[in-house]
Amino acid sequence: MISFAECSARERLALLLDPGSFHEWLPPSERVTSPHLAQLGVPSAFDDGVAIGRATLDGHGVFVAAQEGAFMGGGVGEVHGAKLVGLLQRAQRDRPTAVLLLAESGGVRLHEANAGLIAVSEVMRALLDVRAAGIPVIVLIGGANGCFGGMGIVARCADHIVMSDVGRLAMSGPEVIEASHGVEEFDSRDRALVWRTTGGKHRWLTGDCDALVEDDVAAFREAAIAALGKSKPLTLAALEDEHALLTRRLLALPGDNTGRDEAVLLWRALGVVDAEQVPDLSVDTVRALRVI
Amino acid sequence: MQWNSLVTQLFGPYHGMRAAGDFLQGEVMFEGEPLTVIGTTNHAPIGVRLALAQARVVLDTVAQHPGRAILLLIDTQGQQLRRRDELLGINRAMAHLGASIDLARRRGHRVIGLVYDQALSGGFITSGLIADACYALPDAEIRVMRIPAMARVTKLPEEKLTALSQSNPVFAPGVQNYVAMGGVRALWQGDLQAALRDALAHAPTDDVRARDGAERGGRQLAAPVVQRVLDAA
């Protein structure tokens, strides 16, 4: 068992895809770097924190991108974003079996502020174009930095999300919420609370991810292969179903829960038995608890 | 600008728009054609509830009024920064709003965004930035995060970021920078009705923002990098 969380982006690609099949576009040797970091005295990376290319997965031709959490938390800057957009536009043109996005990102790279924000929005539109073309986009989340901010939205625009139990998927990071509304609102040092709010088990029980796996590269590979060919068109009916699901969830959680754990309340309201036990249960056991 | 004064300029004194809390909604007539208007006011934070309220109107418009244009009026301090919203999957609710607007566009609705006061990050990505095209009033502000929070996250000195936000288009909140970078198509000045008429008639349906950013000189690398990926061996 090899921990997905502890691998670098390139190690994940090497282990997840068919051996030796990854062919990178704009590799580090081409030195396509950020135009904005130097003025801040911040070092740049020769791949701007993301590796993109084509490969095979179980023999199927796929396009793939992997964000490197060790470089600026996987933040999306102008070049990083443009590499993702280029990959997605190329997928529309060349029609691979699927596009895999190994997402590990804090969202917009704040060092490139405005340019990063527009870039994330371009990624979102390009991803929805690929999905509308019937090519499934599969997002894999299991890096130590999680998948946050604009990339948390982008991930939810994909056809399929695979998460490990140590993976995190959300919008604002706990530190940002704590800084904004105080430690009573969200204690970012309470790791158990952070995982109950954003972690893989929670996202699985609520239906926010489509597969929950162990923190194991082989498990991610297996789940990605299982998702190949599973395009989920965003029709009006599909969006009405989504709307109903999100509305039910909003109404399921009572308004005033002083002193009670809201994650447990929500799981229970969603029909999960033994909701209090969830944090201590194995991935296999939690997988069987979902009723949504 | 106040939303009331804005819609009065656009649609006349009997515009029929109403506010429920921070949420704006209306079916207005513009030059003889019905138009769905959705918006927020009071620098509303966008949480799960407000994202769903907006998505509801978009989906109803798609279902009941095929092809009707949609105008998004933007004034937001960004996403709601609350643990409860995170627990409820605010990222999924916002993705749902974005996907609903995207569906409307694909089914032939023109969707126009207008930042009339302020726009911040999360609340903007799934509204103006996912429209066919986004416009702004000259006094509006668009930013990613307030400077103190940005300094905390990036660990860069606040003074340095403040200085950059005066001069550097990547950091400055002025909408003119967003025009230069291609994120905002144009500013609406003077005759707002003429500006809306022009947007409805001429807003692009493809994403041309990277190309605009390169041509206008505000974001020089995005378009060529995309092209290099398309051309790579």
Structural category of chain A:
alpha/beta
Number of helices of chain A: 11
Shape by Cα distribution of chain A: globular
Number of alpha- plus pi-helical segments of chain B: 11
Strands of the biggest beta sheet of chain B: in what spatial order?
1-2-3-5-7-9-11
Task: Give the beta-strand count of chain A.
Answer: 7
| Cα radius of gyration of chain A in angstroms | 19 Å
Main structural class of chain B: alpha/beta
State the total count of DSSP E strands of chain B.
11
Q: Please, what is the oligomeric state?
A: heterodimer
Give the integer mean of the pLDDT values of chain B: 95
Q: Terminal Cα separation of chain A, in Å? A: 30 Å
- The CATH topology annotation of the domain at 9-169 and 209-232 in chain A reads as 2-enoyl-CoA Hydratase, Chain A, domain 1
Largest interface: A-B, 82 and 77 residues
Give the H and E element order of chain B. Answer: HEEEEHEEHHEEHEEHHHEHHH
Q: Supply the CATH superfamily name of the domain at 9-169 and 209-232 in chain A.
A: 2-enoyl-CoA Hydratase, Chain A, domain 1
How are the strands of the largest sheet of chain A arranged? Answer: 1-2-3-4-5-6-7
| Amount of helix of chain B | 40-55%
Unreliable runs of chain A: none
CATH architecture of the domain at 9-169 and 209-232 in chain A: Alpha-Beta Complex
Radius of gyration of CA atoms of chain B, rounded to a whole number = 18 Å
Report on the architecture of this protein.
Chain A has eleven helices and seven strands. Chain A is an alpha/beta fold and 292 residues long. Chain A has a domain at 9-169 and 209-232: 2-enoyl-CoA Hydratase, Chain A, domain 1 (Alpha-Beta Complex). In chain A, strands 1-2-3-4-5-6-7 form a seven-stranded mixed sheet, sandwiched between helices. Chain A is globular and about 55 Å long. In chain B, helix 2 (48-64) runs parallel beside helix 4 (90-106). Chain B is an alpha/beta fold and 233 residues long. At the A-B interface, helix 2, helix 3, helix 4, helix 5 and helix 6 of A face helix 2, helix 3, helix 4, helix 5 and helix 6 of B.
